[in-house]
Design brief:
With 211 residues, the chain is of the alpha+beta class. The protein has one domain (2-198): C8orf32 fold (Roll), CATH 3.10.620. Helix content is 35%, strand content 22%. The strands form 2 sheets. Strands 1-9-8-4-5-6-7 form a 7-stranded antiparallel β-sheet. β4 and β5 (151-159) form a beta hairpin.
């Protein structure tokens, strides 16, 4: 899949330019206090069962030492890379539930066969960005409640200009506060196996994506 990505690197040039302009406007609005650039984080919480099972299958990817948090400097080139990866994965992977795909209610895996659900989109984007040299500490798998109140996974990218969301339900990369989602928990920047509660603590019903 990485080879296919290299073949389509140029398709998003104009889109990336337009979104870079939008990024500048968003950053200015955040600086002016119109939108919070960073979400409030809370206490350590349970990791999703999907992540725990993923780590059983991909032990090498989860057996990492704690490290210092790192935020990406969001240059125009970095923004262009984000746009390209987000668009390529969203356009290439076809949505399919875990039950249809694997015959189980919940399974996190790489969508290397071209099919996956929200967590699989996130894993693919995270892997591609890490292979391109982006720091793991800035690429955080995140559980949210979407606009329908359903459990959903997105990729949070921590930058010096705010926290941006890569999402298979939305083609545009948005500042977290503009998504309309309620943020539940995400990976710690220091340790991907440690998960941190987000926003106001609330009791949530257990679902496949948020448990």
């Amino acid at each position: 899949m990485a080879g296919r990505f290299k073949q389509v690197l140029t398709f998003a040039g104009l889109t990336a330019f337009a979104m870079a302009a939008g990024l500048a406007a968003t950053a200015s609005a955040s600086a002016a206090g119109q939108e919070p650039a960073f979400i409030a984080i809370g206490d350590v919480t349970r990791a999703p069962i999907g992540w725990l099972e993923f780590c059983v299958e991909y032990k090498g990817e989860c057996s990492v030492k704690p490290s210092e948090p790192r935020d990406v400097v969001l240059t125009p080139k970095a923004w262009t890379d984000l746009v390209r990866v987000n668009a390529w994965v969203n356009d290439t992977i076809k949505p399919m539930t875990d039950l249809e795909h694997w015959g189980v209610v919940e399974r996190w895996n790489y969508p290397d066969d071209g099919y996956g659900d929200c967590e699989d989109y996130v894993l693919a984007k995270r892997r591609m960005l890490m292979k391109a040299g982006w720091p793991r500490e800035a690429l955080l798998i995140t559980v949210v409640r979407d606009k329908k109140g359903e459990g959903h996974a997105v990729l949070t990218v921590k930058t010096d200009k705010g926290e941006y969301i890569l999402d298979n339900q939305e083609s545009e990369i948005l500042l977290w506060s503009k998504t309309g989602y309620r943020f539940v928990k995400r990976q710690s920047q220091s340790d991907p196996n440690t998960w941190i509660a987000l926003g106001e603590p609330r009791n949530l019903p257990v679902t496949a994506s948020s448990r």
